[in-house]
Amino acid sequence: MARREWSGTVLTVLSGISFGALPLFVTWLSRAGVGVWLQVAVRLVVSIAVFAFILLRISPGNVRPVSLRQWAFVAFNGFLMVSAFTTYVLSISLGTPPAKAILLVYLYPVFVALLGVRALGERLTWRRWLGIAAGVVGAAVMVEFWAIRSLGQIQPGDFFALGNSIVYAGVVVLGRRGSVREGIRPLALTMWSFVFGLGWLCLAGLAMKAANWGGEVFLGLPQTVTLRTLGDFLGIAIFGTAIPYSLMYAGLHRTEAAKASVLLLVEPVSVIVMSALFLGQGIGLWQAVGGVIILCAAVLAAR
Question: Who contacts 143 (Cβ-Cβ below 8 Å, separation ≥6)?
Fold first, then answer.
């Protein structure tokens, strides 16, 4: 059991680190004029192909859900995934400052803990609450929340940023429940959630097109497609989606959701390090302090 817990901890931390690559490819593709809808669609299509190939090679008997309950479960999880992919960008497009949106999004460990009690029967110990509080404080310090001018003002995009926090918490909790209680293999759970997520995304895209709403931010297409653009598409799909999500669901199979949510907060630490390495962005004092607080929270959660 101890070895299983530690393997879950390692897999979850690696997932958080891998998620740090996502903003890099989002930045590069956005600069090339690629809208959010196409970015998410490519992430899902390529990831589905990768997962299907792996499942058919190593576990052909566990490729798909086997009951109506499991099918409904992955369909709902896919809806939450697509909601998590899009609500953050929607909050920014509606005027919420990025730092404020990040602050609201990284409240998700609180929602994971609360949902975990109801959906998973997890216990909330003082150590767990302390780890959650430290992780959230660390994220707040990283974005220098005291410098956010509109922090006390309610804006339309704030609801989508907070909604992103809630739906992402739902993805984490359902990831734990799906593999432990519903009996769905983690890789199959991830793949079929992406399949249904792609279906939900197509419906949303058609609705946005019919309503002539979304603009270039969501529905933009690149003016030219270069080898660099194709490489960024593969990068966002493999390194920003397939790898981190497969690691996350494998980790959730082995460790409790509340603990995993704190471990996943290593993501912003990974983001600032990768941004410094690949985008030339400096690491400020408060980013370093916040990162240290988050790492301490992860250590506390791991124990």
Answer: 99, 100, 102, 103, 290
